[in-house]
Amino acid sequence: MVSRRDFFMGASAVALGAGVVSRAGAASLPEAATMDKAATQPPLTPPNGRPYNPVVTLNGWTLPWRMKDGVKEFHLVAEPVVREIAPGMKAHLWGYNGQSPGPTIEVVEGDRVRLFVTNKLPEHTSIHWHGQRLPNGMDGVTGLTQPGIQPGKTFVYEFIAKRPGTFMYHPHADEMVQMAMGMMGFWITHPKDPSLYKVDRDFVFLLNAYDIDPGSYTPKVNTMLDFNLWTFNSRAFPGIDPMVCRQGDHVRIRFGNLTMTNHPIHLHGHEFEVTGTDGGWVPKSARWPEVTTDVAVGQMRAIEFDATDEGDWAFHCHKSHHTMNAMGHDVPTMIGVDQHGVLDKINKLVPDYMIMGEKGGSMGDMEMPLPDNTLPMMTGQGPFGGIEMGGMFTTVKVRKGLARNNYKDPGWYKHPKASVAYEWTGGSLPTTRAPAQASTPVPDEKVLKVRKGGQHHEH
Question: N- to C-terminal Cα distance for the chain?
Fold first, then answer.
């Protein structure tokens, strides 16, 4: 991370709400930190202000702040950015502070928060603080509650973070264009009591989608439904980091949906409870168990589970076309069609042409030439070969003995002997062949209550 002191101020005045300040006054703005890395950054331990348990933003980071006269001050810069969707493909997007999505903002219930928003875009913008209770004039709806922030200007939003929970921020100005270009970010308001809702690991990210033609860099902003890149925090698998957990940890994953459709998010190997929405925390008596939870447009979800079983567990949207990259929407079904005679003729004109789909749609072993800056549809590789997933797919990697703050990718899981599905070649089955993996027992209700009350012990 690098800090930016130069805000392109020049001779332009800076609008602070409805007022105007001089260049000398602008020097009092907090620094606008920026990020140029696409990897998941470590949690930001609060250097001042009230204590809280920080979150980890998947393939993202938390925005630093400064304390001034008891107010927590942040500086967001709306600007064009280049985001690596996955190795081999970059997109020209709009975002905040060097990335899309922008940095996660973390505050504590009761904090007075002041947010400076500088506009480096070629058009006006605003920021709506999705789900917050605040004065109407701070709600960020251009034309309704404020004028637009014009290029080169800086506005100030100030309010008290009144309730803990999981929220987002995004523009309410030329929204179709600006959202399609990637302008969004995550907001966490932690409870004033750090022991309340405490978990061992707390991951956050946004669901987003783009329509970027193969070989190009800029999203098509008028697309309404036919997107071809589905992402977690503007990263497509295999460019998405795993969520690394210690066996026995109580884990929370929070995600928000700013795409144009719903997403049924599914976790393998564990059941979870839906514990929160952007409307607040779900009372324990009203929580429900799931292995898949559907997230509608504009909604947030927080799920929690005990990481009881070691392994590399898939975590993905269960709409199958959302776990692919660079999709084509007009490809005919060719299952059962013998194309070899046609292939010989076409290869005389197009030497690299490949037949597709006569035995199904699998592309794991294909090596088709692609335009520059284009992701293959399903390119992820695992320890047993092609995973044949892209888009909204990653893994939850559960391992024994990890340090509490260790989020480093541990590599692929080493399965215990006799615990992997195998080919049957006939004859009798071994009587002793059985999964050797032992699971950590699910903590009983009493133990869970102790853990959630903030009294943790090492596993």
Answer: 33
Q: In whole angstroms, what is the distance from residue 209 CA to residue 360 CA?
A: 26
Longest dimension (CA), the chain: 86
Find residue 272's DSSP bridge partners: 290
Q: Flag whether pLDDT at 368 surpasses 80.
A: no
The whole-angstrom separation of Cα 397 and Cα 400 is 10
At 372-431, the pLDDT tens digits run: 898 887 678 999 999 989 999 999 999 999 999 999 999 999 999 999 999 999 988 877
Measured distance CA(379)–CA(373) in Å, rounded:
14
- Cβ(261)–Cβ(225) below 8 Å: yes
> Taking the mean position of all CA atoms in its chain, how far away is CA 237?
12
Token duo for residue 401 = 């003995």
pLDDT of residue 432: 61
Task: Return d(Cα 158, Cα 117) in angstroms, integer.
Answer: 11
For the residues of 169-227, what is the DSSP string, one character each? EE--SSHHHHHHTT--EEEEEE-SSTTTT--SEEEEEEEEEE---TT--S--TT-SS--
Query: What DSSP letter does each residue of 402-415 carry, written as one string?
Result: --TT--S---S--P
HSE value, Cβ hemisphere, 13 Å, CA-based, for 285: 0
> 222-250: per-residue pLDDT in tens?
998 889 899 999 999 999 999 999 999 99
How far apart CA 190 and CA 123 sit, in angstroms, is 34
CA distance linking residue 393 with residue 86, whole number of Å = 12
Is residue 183 within 8 A of residue 130, CB to CB? The reply is no
Q: Can you read off the two tokens belonging to residue 20?
A: 């105007």
CB within 8 A of 277, min separation 6: which ones? 166, 299, 300, 301, 302
| Dihedrals phi, psi of 344, to nearest 5 degrees | -60, -40
Contact (CB, 8 A) for 104 and 60: yes
Nearest to 158 by CA among 181, 172, 139, 173: 139
Domains and CATH numbers, the chain: 2-200 (2.60.40.420)
> 102: which residues sit within 8 A by CB, 6+ positions away?
63, 76, 95, 96, 169, 183, 184, 185
Span 323-331, average pLDDT: 66
* pTM score of the predicted model: 0.83
Q: Measure Cα distances from 258 to 53, 101, 181, 186, 358 in Å.
A: 25, 11, 12, 11, 36
Q: Are 259 and 83 in contact (CB under 8 A)?
A: no
